[in-house]
Each structure stands twice: as C-alpha cells, then as structure tokens.
Predict the structure.
Amino acid sequence: MQQVKAVIARAKGQPVEVTTINVPDPGPGEALVKVQACGVCHTDLHYREGGINDDFPFLLGHEAAGVVEAVGDDVTSVAPGDFVVLNWRAVCGDCRACDRGEPWYCFATHNATQKMTLEDGTELSPALGIGAFAEKTLVAAGQCTKVDPSARPAAVGLLGCGVMAGIGAAINTGAVTRGKSVAVIGCGGVGVAAVAGSALAGASPVIAVDIDPKKLEAAKKLGATHIVDSSQTDPVAAIQELTGGFGADVVVEAVGRPETWRQAFYARDLAGTVVLVGVPTPDMLVPDIPLIDVFGRGGSLKSSWYGDCLPSRDFPMLVDLYQQGRLDLDAFVTEEIGIDDVEAAFDRMHAGDVLRSVVIL
Ligand code: APR
Ligand code: ZN
Ligand code: ZN
C-alpha cells in the first residue's frame, strides 16, 4: 500500500479537495500506474454534481497517461516502465458483444478489484473506473494501453476520453472516409476532435457549427474547411448550401440537445448518417419530427459510445499519427495546471474558455 495526493469529490455539489489516499499494491489482473497527466472532463464535474450516481466520495480524473509502476502476478499485457494511456472500457473479449466484433458494447468491462480508500478507510469510487487525478492510481491491466513512450503525456492522455470520443464518432461510428462531406454541430473538445478526425480521414468539406465564435476558430485550426455560426445563420440551410444542396454525408452532433439533434437530422444527405456523440440529460426527448420525414430519408441515425473505439487498436495508431505531425493533439491542451487547480479549471470549462485543462502530476 502507498499513500499519494489525489483530488476527490467528497459530497454532492461541494468543491473538490486535494487529500491523501491509500492505493493498494496491484493484485491479480491489476496495474499500479504513476500518473503523469490527466485532462479535466465534463464527466468529472458531473460526478461532483451527483449527476452520475451517489457513490461519494469520488476519486476524480479519467483522461490520463502515465507509466506502469507495478503489476499483479498474472499480468502479461503490460509491465513496469511501460508508458500507457488509460481507458475506461477494458473489454472482456468473451461476451456476446465482443464475440460479434463490437467490443465497444462489451457487457463485462474490467476495473481494478481492490479499492483505493481515504486515510480513514472509506472506499473511493474512481471516476469511470479510473480515478487519475492522483499521483498513482490502481486500474485493471486491460485499462492500460501501451503507446509510443516519447509522446507528450498531456496530449496523448486526452485520447482516454473526450478526444477519442470525437475522433471515433467521425471515423469509427460515422465511417468518414476520403471525400465525404461532414458537418459537426457543437465544437467543444469532443466536436473539434470530430473535426480533426474528419480532416485526418480526408473528408471534404468539413463544416464546423457552433454558437461561439471562439470554438469555431479552434475548429478551423483543427481542419474545418468552413465554419457556421448557428446563432446568426440557419445551420441546416448553410450545410445544404455547402454540400451542393444535398446535405452532409455525415453529421456529428456533439452538443447533446434535442434542437441540435434535429438540425443534424435535417442537415444530412437523404442517405446520410447522423452520429449523436453529445450526451443528453435523461429528461430530454427525441424532438418532434414528422414520421413522413423519417420515412422520406434513408441513411442511418446512430449514437457513438466512447467513439466506438477499441483502445488497443485506436490509441497506438492515433499516438503515432500525432507523433508524425498528422493529428494535432497539442491543440486540445489549452493549459497545463497543478493538482490544486481542478476546482478553478471546472469554472473555466463551464465558461467555455478551454478545450482542455490538463493536470500535470
Ligand atoms: N448549437 C451549436 N453549438 C452549441 C449549441 C447549439 N445550440 N449549444 C452549445 N453549443 C456548443 C458550445 O458552444 C460548445 O462549444 O457545444 C459545445 C459543447 O462543448 P463542451 O461544453 O466543451 O462539451 P464537450 O466536452 O465537447 O462535450 C460535448 O458530450 O461529453 C458530452 O457532456 C458533454 O454534452 C457534452 C458533449
Ligand atoms: Zn465483452
Ligand atoms: Zn471524459
């Protein structure tokens, strides 16, 4: 067992705090990771607000890269010294979803079995089964994916959640390929990642839509060929106009609201795909759309769960593309911060001032 500094959410709606936690030595199937960098994501804030569940106290943080310090007896997939990006979907390889080749729907994903605790023994609930706003964290070995050790931790750690969700929404779920027209509605961290993924895949045009001009500038930097400020312009008409009157082959909805999903529905080509990657709240309903409009359009309406990624396939590939200068992960890192600055980083995220703040440990 070791004691390390970590960021926890002790009670619903309370500011997060830095405290000392106990991290057990890795048992069978587990790995102890010395965390180097961990991004601040909306989901961490949702945990703090009690929006995910009530299993306080939470150990926050889940977009992380670090070095494996020790592994349990039976672990062969990673070894001490390996540089890894953590994932929150360590698939079982054995269930119905895994068998049919869709491991992103795996029913039996792995987390560490032993519990990290507060000094008084209270068990912590690690955010998304990770808990990486901590100098060291205990995870399932399958949650560690080895990547190029010379890559910048703050940048590649972001592949562990939001950036992978966005890139994967475009490339994996939307099957964006060279020459397809793509529109991305909502250009926060997830949406601009979908823009970057579409550009990487050779899509054209890549149309970025947002109500915030700052976000549209970021989208341009990451490969958008056109931008649409939907607070000023009807995005459906604008997307149609930019695609020869047809609508986009793929529209990625990265806001998670009924009105933007409706825009996506109408902004796609008749045979186009809508990918919902923004996370709606439980009270939101599918918008009223005449059934005849559904009948009149083919294509598909999809959702994307963690970018339908397979970490062992996608993380090393995307890190290599980053290292080659073909995927600008650095552009997502707005600021590097200390472990004491997470609460303030939530405020900056809320204000829309950052794509990602990344805690350096
Ligand atoms: N039309 C277009 N864009 C919008 C609209 C709208 N009506 N409303 C909000 N947006 C934009 C915001 O300006 C912002 O740029 O959507 C973006 C949302 O980005 P973030 O809040 O940074 O969220 P992000 O991390 O990208 O995640 C997107 O997925 O993980 C979930 O909770 C997360 O629902 C959120 C979504
Ligand atoms: Zn499985
Ligand atoms: Zn996240």
User: Anything to note?
Assistant: The pocket of zinc ion (ligand 2) is lined by residues 91-95, 97-98, 103, 106-108 (CB under 6 Å). The two ends are 19 Å apart (CA to CA).
